[in-house]
Write a structure and sequence with these properties.
The protein has 247 residues and is α+β, with helices and mostly antiparallel strands. The chain contains six helices and 13 strands. Strands 1, 2, 3, 4, 5, 12 and 13 form a seven-stranded antiparallel β-sheet that branches. Strands 6, 7, 8, 9, 10 and 11 form a six-stranded antiparallel β-sheet that branches.
C-alpha cells in the first residue's frame, strides 16, 4: 500500500511538471469568454454571423491575439459585407470588461480588412441628410453619381464624380472632383460644403481601437478597405477564418 501511494504521488508530480513544460513554439489554446464575444458582436452591429478566436495571455484581461470575423457588419450605419479584425498583444481593462465595456489599455499591433459593395455605399449616402436619391456608378478611374441636393430650400438634381481617399487615419473620405447641376458646373466652395456634410463615409474614430486605414480600393465586387497597402491576403493579414466557417 505504501508503494502504491508513493507511485501515485510520483505520477501526480510528473503530471504537474509536464503541464508546466510547454514547448517554446507552442501557442496557448484559443479561448474567449461569452462576454468578450458579446462585446465584439455589439461593436460590429450584432451581425448574423460572427467568428472569434482569442489566445489569452498570462494576466487578467490580456490576450496574445484576438481575431474576429463578421459578415454583414454595420459600422456607423454603413453595411460592410465582411470584416476581419486582428489585435496582437492587446490588454483590456478587466474591471471595464465586467461592466460590459471594451476599454483597451495597451496594444502592440492591429489590422483590419473589409469588403463592401457599391450598393451598400449608395444606401449609406441615401441615409444622410445632405443628399437623396443617390445613384452610383463606377468607371476605371472614379465613382460617378447622381443625387438630389437641397440648396437654399430648393431641391436640385446634381451629377458628381469623385474618388475615395484614405490618409492612414481611422476614416474613409469621398472627394468630389466635379459637381454640376443641369450640366452647369458648380463652384468648388459648394462642392467642398457637400463633402463636409457626407464625410467621413467610414469612421472608426469612436472605436476602442483606432485602425489606420491605408487602402480603399475599387474591385469588380465593390470595394476593399484595409490597414495594409497590400490587401491581397486578408485572412493571412488579419487572422480571419475561412468563409464557410459558422459560429
Amino acid at each position: 500500500m505504501a508503494r502504491v501511494s508513493r507511485c501515485l504521488a510520483f505520477l501526480t508530480v510528473v503530471a504537474f511538471v509536464a503541464g508546466l513544460l510547454v514547448p517554446a513554439g507552442a501557442e496557448p489554446q484559443s479561448t474567449s469568454t461569452p462576454e468578450l464575444r458579446t462585446l465584439f458582436s455589439h461593436l460590429l452591429g450584432d451581425p448574423p454571423l460572427i467568428h472569434m478566436e482569442a489566445i489569452p495571455d498570462i494576466y487578467d484581461g490580456g490576450y496574445a491575439r484576438v481575431s474576429v470575423y463578421g459578415r454583414h457588419v454595420i459600422i456607423k450605419g454603413m453595411l460592410i459585407d465582411e470584416l476581419w479584425i486582428k489585435l496582437v498583444g492587446v490588454s483590456f481593462d478587466p474591471a471595464e470588461l465586467k461592466r460590459g465595456n471594451l476599454k483597451v489599455t495597451d496594444i502592440r499591433d492591429n489590422a483590419i480588412y473589409g469588403r463592401l459593395s457599391l450598393a451598400a455605399v449608395q444606401d449609406y449616402l441615401n441615409k444622410q441628410a445632405a443628399v437623396k436619391d443617390v445613384q452610383l456608378g463606377v468607371n476605371a478611374e472614379a465613382i460617378t453619381g447622381a443625387a438630389t441636393v437641397v440648396y437654399n430650400g430648393v431641391p436640385a438634381r446634381v451629377r458628381m464624380q469623385g474618388v475615395f481617399q484614405v490618409y492612414g487615419d481611422p476614416e474613409v473620405f469621398f472627394h468630389i472632383q466635379a459637381l454640376s447641376v443641369n450640366s452647369i458646373p458648380v463652384p468648388y466652395v459648394l462642392a467642398a460644403n457637400l463633402e463636409r456634410q457626407i464625410n467621413p463615409v467610414v469612421d472608426f474614430r469612436t472605436w476602442p481601437v483606432q485602425f489606420k486605414i491605408r487602402t480603399f480600393k475599387q474591385t469588380p465586387e465593390g470595394f476593399v478597405l484595409s490597414s495594409q497597402r497590400d490587401f491581397a491576403q486578408p485572412c493571412n493579414a488579419c487572422g480571419g477564418p475561412p468563409l464557410q466557417l459558422v459560429p
